[in-house]
Design goal:
The chain is built from 24 helices and two strands. It is mainly α. A two-stranded antiparallel sheet has the order 1-2. Helix 11 packs parallel to helix 13, helix 12 runs antiparallel to helix 13 and helix 17 packs antiparallel against helix 18.
């Protein structure tokens, strides 16, 4: 038995191995490219460390790829086998139970397990980080906030990783609309560690939701040099910069950043594709020609779209495939993607209570049908598909800034379908939250010119 950097007891062969595990956790919190290498070093020093195998399983699930889920199951089996030989602490056993629930498709149960770990062990920063991820993709902002608020009493400057916890707190506060407190916590975290990209991203979210593009882009520009060792999450922060630039009408810069930053390496990671899809749609909606940029997104999305690990990803894949197929005049891939989602929503995972299958049934399918109808120019049909299910949109997960793409699509469809009262009502509702939003003003002007119904 060893103790980690925050004093938690952990099964490990040596202090050196646990030090390597601590370095892995630090890399994970910092979104470092070297995170996988740190984990490999840990397992080389201690091939039988249960939590190292468990964390490997979690990392594989974070990719939201069906083929990696099998490897995550193998990691869980290795963790259990190691625990059977060396013994497990109750905390370690709960971590493995969380991974098992996650693998079974029950995201809510997994989140609850990690939250339970934090009741007894508030310094378990891995449980804190994983709980935030799961609550985020459950679309449960109050739970997201409560999850970090409960253990926060135990954190201060004397506990290693306190700055990262401030960043987690900042994001949770932002997602529940407590913008002043969120910005203060995020700026505090960044002052402690300029490389804390999650905290910097939380402040960018505040600026996005408060329509402060003139501050947002320089905020990211000033911190970007500190993220040289970051993984692809940096592309998401560059996406935020593009939103700020777009709000300022700087579309040429947006396209340049798209090609060199947001989509610079043409990756197949779902978040990278979602960033790109959401940006291209916004550009096109503003009348900007995006050239052939949809093509590679459509090709990758058609391949990845059958995984159905996150409905958040499925909706963006559908948007890409529909755009790519529209450009070619062939709707085959889009229909195939929709059929696949329908089978998933009605399949055995849904019967077993799988989180994402239920989300696919209740909101994923209506949303994807609306996306497809909108791309095909059937705007009234898009409104009819999405509007009744709009209250459940949060269940796809993602941030409010990310889900705003689908709110914009619904408003755009209402305007183009000539549904004046609905368009004006939706814009009025959005303006209550986004009071200084440039897009809102432009769309309100279009809606005002619609004939009365």
């Amino acid at each position: 038995m060893q103790h980690d950097i925050r004093g938690l007891p952990q099964t490990a062969a040596s202090a050196e191995a646990l030090h390597a595990f601590d370095a892995t956790v630090e890399a994970y919190l910092g979104f470092e490219l070297a995170t996988g290498d740190r984990l490999k070093e840990t397992l080389a020093l201690d091939p039988a460390m249960p939590l190292a195998h468990g964390l490997k399983g979690c990392f594989l699930l974070l990719s939201a790829k069906r083929d990696l889920a099998a490897r995550a199951a193998k990691a869980l089996a290795d963790a259990k086998a190691a625990g059977a030989r060396a013994g497990l602490t109750p905390r370690e056993a709960r971590h493995l139970a969380g991974l098992e629930a996650w693998l079974a498709g029950d995201l809510a149960a997994a989140a609850a397990i990690y939250d339970t770990v934090l009741l007894a062990h508030p310094h378990d920063i891995v449980a804190l980080k994983l709980a935030q991820y799961l609550h985020f993709y459950l679309g449960d902002a109050p739970a997201l906030r409560a999850s970090v608020a409960r253990p926060f009493y135990a954190w201060d400057d004397g506990v290693p990783g306190y700055g990262y916890v401030l960043g987690l707190q900042a994001f949770a506060l932002e997602e529940t609309g407590d913008y002043g407190a969120a910005e203060a916590a995020g700026r505090d975290a960044v002052a402690r560690n300029p490389g804390d990209i999650w905290a910097a991203h939380a402040v960018a979210h505040v600026m996005e939701m408060q329509d402060r593009p003139a501050e947002g882009a320089p905020w990211i520009d000033g911190l970007e040099p500190a993220w040289a060792g970051c993984n692809n999450f940096a592309y998401h922060v560059y996406w935020h910069r593009c939103l700020f630039l777009l709000d300022q009408g700087r579309t040429e810069e947006v396209l340049a950043h798209y090609d060199t930053k947001v989509r610079g390496d043409l990756s197949e990671e779902y978040l990278d594709i979602a960033n790109a899809v959401a940006l291209l749609w916004r550009l096109e909606q503003r009348g900007i020609d995006v050239g052939n940029r949809w093509a590679e997104l459509a090709e990758k999305s058609a391949t990845l779209g059958g995984d159905h690990m996150l409905v958040f990803a499925d909706a963006h894949f559908m948007m890409a495939v529909a755009a790519g197929e529209a450009a070619k005049g062939d709707d085959g891939a889009a229909e195939a993607l929709l059929d696949s989602l329908e089978r998933f929503a009605a399949g055995p995972e849904c019967a077993k209570g799988g989180t994402e299958a239920g989300v696919a049934r209740d909101i994923g399918l209506p949303l994807c049908r609306a996306v497809l109808a909108h791309r095909r120019g059937r705007y009234g049909e898009a409104v009819e598909a999405l509007l009744p299910h709009r209250p459940a949109l949060n269940r796809i997960g993602g941030s409010r800034a990310q889900r705003d793409l689908f709110e914009q699509l619904l408003i755009d469809a209402a305007v183009k379908a000539g549904k004046a009262p609905l368009a004006r009502a939706l814009l009025s509702e959005r303006a209550d939250v986004r009071r200084a939003n440039a897009w809102n003003r432009e769309m309100a002007a279009l809606a005002a010119r619609l004939p009365a119904q």
